Amino acid sequence: MYKEIELLTTEGPKAFPMLANGATAIRYRQVFHSDLMYGIAAFSKMDSAPEKVDFELPSKLGFIMNSAASGKDMNKLSEDGYVEWLEQFEGDTLWNANGPITDIYLVNQTTASKGKK
Fold it and tell me: How many Cβ atoms are within 10 Å of 48's Cβ, its own excluded?
């Protein structure tokens, strides 16, 4: 799924393209060495086990999806590139956008087909 979301940068509001596809979870694991689906599950149960939550998950996911939508060489993504990407945002911008960012990925994971009876 492709969608643009507006985020507050140090230079003001800017639209960021986001692309979630079949490789998103794999790219997330390659760069951040953790499983995206386990992370999302822990994030959704934040109240019951906050010590297991990666509070950077939405911003990490945003980095992967923005890189894919921007045509970056996905084989060259790194944690250092992630930190550089973060430097353009105001304080809690990505935290405040965690819903729209994760929704783009999760909508991509739903199916429109009906099961057989």
Answer: 9
